[in-house]
Amino acid sequence: MSNYVIELPPVPTLPVAGSDALFPVRRIYCIGRNYAAHTIEMGGDPNREAPFFFQKNPNNIDLTGEFPYPAHSNDVHFEVEMAVALKSGGTNIPVDQALDHVFGYGVCLDMTRRDLQGEAKKLGRPWEIGKAFERSGPSGPLHTVAEVGHIDHGRIELKVNGQIRQEGDINQMIWKVPEMISYLSEYFELAAGDVIMSGTPSGVGPVQRGDVMVMSAAGLGSVEVRVV
Ligand code: MN
Questions:
Q1: Counting Cβ atoms within 10 Å, is residue 2 exposed (0-12), middle (13-18) or buried (19+)?
Q2: What is the CA(59)–ligand 1 centre distance, in A?
Q3: For 13-227, which CATH superfamily applies?
Q4: Residue 138: phi, psi to the nearest 5?
Q5: Which of 25, 48, 101, 222 is surrounded by the fewest CB atoms within 10 Å?
């Protein structure tokens, strides 16, 4: 018998490809503007200024293959990204030891209420209303380092209704995976279960109900998500 005064909420998880194993998600960090071409399309400076991060809620992850168009927005954008899942963590992790903490990689979407995010930016308000809403993180399964190695290059793309809308190469990241782990660990205590969404290449754009998005990355498979 437990001492919880309400039923224990379910632990958000990501499936591990090729098995029935589950990766429990503790936190989700998302890096902003990590591909030069996307930085330019969002009006930013693609030079290597310090990275910035925001968070989604772990239970924003969605594995159903459906993305319900959210309320209070008329401009909901896709952002295809590579997810990096940590099996351990710590603080002040050196860049050359950062990859030792990686469990695996996956492909995911950082769905964004762009109009609400834009309003928040303009007013100097936090981004959660634009970024951390229900089912805003459609995700594919994780592929373990043992299976796919460490992913530092390879095509990443998003198609909508069969048309390529976003494409890039993971080697175009401004801040590489070991650098983002190291940087984050200076500000937060990272731990097993943390997931980093590593930024999106250029071509972000809106979806409508009925659209079919297919996200894929080299070695990480592809995942179809229908906007409903
Ligand atoms: Mn993003």
A1: exposed
A2: 17
A3: Fumarylacetoacetase-like, C-terminal domain (3.90.850.10)
A4: -60, 135
A5: 48
Cα(4) to ligand 1 centroid in Å equals: 35
The alpha carbon of 175 and the centre of ligand 1 are apart by a number of angstroms equal to 14
Domain boundaries, the chain: 13-227
What proportion of the chain, given as a percentage, has pLDDT over 70? 100
pLDDT per residue as tens digits for the range 22-39: 999 999 999 999 998 888
| HEC assignment per residue over the chain | CCCCCCCCCCCCEEEECCCCCEEECCEEEEECCCEHHHHHHCCCCCCCCCCCEEEECHHHEECCCEECCCCCCCCEEECEEEEEEECCCECCCCHHHHHHHEEEEEEEECCEEHHHHHHHHHHCCCCHHHHCCCCCEEECCEEEHHHHCCCCCCEEEEEECCEEEEEEEHHHECCCHHHHHHHHHHHCCECCCEEEECCCCCCCEECCCCCEEEEEECCCEEEEEEEC
Task: Give pTM, 2 decimals.
Answer: 0.96
For the segment 101-111, the average pLDDT, to the nearest whole number, is 98
Contact 84, 195 (CB under 8 A): yes
* CA 81 / ligand 1 centre spacing (Å): 7
Confidence at 44, pLDDT banded by 50, 70, 90: confident
pLDDT over 70 (residue 119): yes
